[in-house]
Amino acid sequence: MSNEAGEIEKLRKTIEHLSDQIIRSKEQEERILSEFSEMNNELVTLQRLLAKNNASLDAARKEAVSAGESKSSFIAVISHDFRTPLNGILGMAELLQHSSLSEEQQHSVQVIQEAARLLLKLIQDLLDFSKLEAGQMRLEMGDVELEPTFNYIVRLLEPKVIQNGNKLAVECDPRISGVLEGDSTRITQVLMNLIQNANKFTKEGSICIQADLVREDEDSQWIRFEVKDTGIGIAEEDQKTLFQPYVQTEKGRSKEYEGTGLGLSICQSLVRLMGGQIGVISQEGQGSTFWFEIPMGRKTEPVKATVPTGQDTLHDSGALLQEPYSRPILLADDNLINRQVVLMQLKKLGITKVDSVSNGEEAVAAFLSKRYGIILMDNMMPVMDGLEATRKIRAMEQDEMRHAVPIIAMTGNVMDGEKEKCLEAGMNDFIGKPFTLESLKNVIQKWQLPSEPREVLNMSIVKEIGELNSDGEQSILEMLLDMYRNETPGKIEVLRRYVVSGDHIAAAECAHDLKSGSLSLGIEYCSTLFARIEQLAKTGQVRKAEPLLGELIPAYQEACEALEKVII
Question: Which sequence positions carry the modification called Phosphohistidine (predicted)?
Answer without folding.
Answer: 512
